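User: I'm putting together a teaching handout on how multi-component assemblies are represented. Below are the sequence lines for each component of a complex, exactly as they appear in our records. Could you produce the 3D structure of the whole assembly as structure tokens, so the students can see both representations side by side? Please keep the chain order the same as the input.
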Amino acid sequence: MILYDYILSPSCYKVRLLASLLGVQLELRAVDFHPGREHKADDLLNLNPAGSIPILVDDDFVLTESAAMLAYLASKYGPDWAADGDPQAIALQHQWLAFSNRLTATLGGARLVEMLNFEGDLEALQSSGVVALRELEAALFARRVSGGTFLVGDAPSIADIACFPYVALAPDGSVSLDPYPSIRLWMRALRALPGFIEMPGIHRLHELAQDPLAEPDS
Amino acid sequence: MTTDAVRNAWYPVGLLSGLSVDGEDSLLLGEKITVFGSDDGTPRVESCGHILPVVQRFGHLWTSLGAPDKDLFTIPEADHPDRTLVDVGVVRVKCSPLRAVENFLDVAHFPFVHTDILGAETHPEVRDYKVEIRDEVDEVWATKVEFFQPQAAKSAGGGITTEYMYRVPAPTCSVLYKTCPPRPGEWDVIALFVQPLAEDLCDVWPWMALFDDESSMTDLIHFQQLIFLQDRSILENQIPKKLPLDPAMETPTRADLTSVAYRRWLKRHSYTYGAQLVAE
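Assistant: Of course. Below is the structure of the complete assembly, with chains in the same order as your input.
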């Protein structure tokens, strides 16, 4: 399976992250998104007329939306990561996948303006990003008081993976995560999953590494 | 504060390969500038109707708001015809331009910020190295810097002890020379050119001149973007925002010798843009 990838793209990272959590090997093809704008060049436009990345190619099967890629990887390699059977859980998962597009458009848009000098109305992007973060915080708080850690059900799912990257990188677009304790706990739980991988701006949990000064167990 | 030293320095303002004939607005030291490409190889920079001096070097266009009293520095090693020259592209960072340079000079953060690439948490030690301000060239140099690196470069097959030399040839520029995995005896050249937009905001233009026949240009760009973007979130959270030049402000350790020399050198030149002289 080939992933057309950009190391700084949170949408590409979603797919790399789920693949790593599932132990699936992806063949990565680096796309010169910045400064080369290779995703708008003929070769990639032939593969994806929308001119976006990531693109996932599995033999002659091509996907161009990261949410669909998450669903495909989960169905094929990690059925526990996608809701199955329970109509409400399935619907909620779809709802969060759709919600993640708002995070991309708002927090992701602010990040591109602030970091890579893209055009955009920064204040509008940031304030609509904050609206989305407040909704997420409220939902995760409700989950926590009823004993849950993740967005849907008892275990992490593609809903969490779809929402996590643009939330974690909100500070890149000058949107602080300080006001959202439930979001921070949720992110910590995701970062602690076996097989978790980082991307620039999302650091691994150094606090879980062994304390180099700790006395060895006798 | 814009002293003569600040106004007369050269600054990068764009990639020669990415200039627009129609002009693109930018900032330099808080002042508006417009950067114009051209079809005949003569790009120009304007500020308030004035034409600013320009130099084309290292794949970038350079300018100055003042009257530079010396030529932009050179990197003779980078002229070798076998080298791949890599325009990494611009990244905007909300930090002092001097903090961006200082971070580039630091090796102690490798295991914690560039974990399993430029450093490993199991190998955090910074061995003794040599730092000097070379008066004859008026540059800061750090040499004999050795560090264990799991993946020192795109071309490195596995963990190696890498040797570094750091050079600060201009207040907002740093050049590092490091062991070149495919060509022992040669140095890879990695530079950080910083365009100060304001005292707490900068555009960073990384640039590289490498010996690497294997990796694609895109892979090389991505490797450096990966590294620099790992730094970005740290840089944006440093406090105080401006680089302190008052020695009473921070307590450096031996690993910070390059930083100490850099700060002294800035102070000697009254280069205070993005710096604070006394605690605020």
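A couple of points students might notice: Chain B has two domains: 1-72, 80-276. Residues 80-276 of chain B form a domain with the Naphthalene 1,2-dioxygenase Alpha Subunit; Chain A, domain 1 fold (CATH 3.90.380.10).
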